[in-house]
Specification:
Elements: E1 4-9, H1 17-30, E2 35-40, H2 61-66, E3 77-79, E4 84-87, H3 92-95, H4 97-100, H5 103-123, E5 126-131, H6 137-145, E6 148-153, H7 157-173, E7 179-184, H8 196-209, E8 214-215, H9 223-229, H10 241-258
Parallel strand pairs: 1-5, 1-6, 2-4, 2-5, 6-7, 7-8
Antiparallel strand pairs: 3-4
Helix pairs in contact: 5-6, 7-8
The chain binds adenosine-5'-diphosphate and magnesium ion.
Length: 260
């Protein structure tokens, strides 16, 4: 088995990276794939709030990166209900150490991540890294090892401008064969009708600036998703056709491109 690494990223926070990571993990797990979802957002970890509490002996991704005696497999939390595995980050009260860590810490972390990935790719078909926003050192490490990235954008000027800047950085810093996708999320209905031109202008700015990045089909804002996930639900709202249909078309595209 040779698993694929998918990073969910964005320039700004609150674009829907974590929500989409949960949907993507579920989609592929339901298709019978072996999926692992990793919370790599140390500044604002959140995956733990969507699952029942893990046992005391389940280590976090922070534990793995900080202590060489831990194996990445000590961190696996099997979500029986969702049929995929998760690795959590330490909840915020105790997990903020990464903020004060330096470049040397992240250099060691990168070596640990590469080591983990070799082991994980033998066991999983798809490994999803849910990251924090911007080009912090952690996100940069993940960018260096993930072959596919989905960059989530909210439909507003500064989110689009920031994403353009970030794509520029990515393409000038990483020489490896990359496949990046841009995905507009939480798009209000008007941008699909009377304000379609605005959405198209943003899409064209990205297409013209970065023809290498592929644009996925935009996902609408759903009140139901917002209110359900906003309270850390264990049940992912799937009964939202206006979201589910374009989401599934996007996933089919990824499935085909990467032979998932
Ligand atoms: N398509 C959507 N429609 C409505 N709300 C959404 C949608 N996608 C995400 N959200 C909500 O937006 C908020 C931020 O999402 P989250 O996944 O935590 O963002 P991030 O991980 O990028 O910081 C959450 O309350 C989430 O439920
Ligand atoms: Mg998040």
């Amino acid at each position: 088995m040779k698993g694929k690494f998918l990073m969910i990223h964005s320039y700004k926070g609150g674009t829907g990276k974590t929500a989409l990571s949960l949907y993507i993990a579920k989609y592929f797990a339901d298709k019978g794939k072996k999926v692992l979802l990793i919370d790599a957002d140390f500044q604002a970890p959140s995956l733990f709030s969507f699952f029942p509490k893990p046992g005391e002996d389940t280590k976090t991704f922070n534990d793995y990166l900080e202590a060489p005696e831990h194996s990445i497999f000590d961190c696996i939390y099997p979500s029986v209900k969702e049929k995929y595995d998760v690795i959590f980050s330490r909840p915020p009260e105790t997990g903020s150490k990464v903020l004060s860590t330096d470049t040397q810490w992240h250099r060691v972390a990168l070596a640990r991540i590469i080591h983990a990935n070799t082991e994980l790719s033998r066991r999983y078909d798809l490994i999803i890294y849910d990251t924090g926003p911007g080009l912090n050192l952690m996100a940069t490490n993940i960018l260096a090892v993930a072959e596919i990235a989905i960059i989530v954008v909210r439909p507003n000027d500064y989110s689009v401008m920031g994403t353009l800047l970030m794509l520029k950085e990515i393409y000038s810093s990483f020489s490896q064969q990359r496949k990046d996708f841009v995905l507009f999320n939480q798009v209000p209905p008007k941008f699909f009708s009377i304000k379609k031109k605005i959405l198209n202008n943003w899409l064209n700015l990205i297409k013209d600036g970065y023809p290498k990045a592929e644009i996925l089909e935009a996902l609408p804002y759903s009140e139901h998703i917002s209110t359900t996930l906003g309270v850390g639900a264990y049940n992912l709202p799937i009964d939202v056709p206006q979201f589910r249909e374009p989401f599934e078309r996007n996933m089919k595209r990824l499935e085909k491109l990467f032979k998932l």
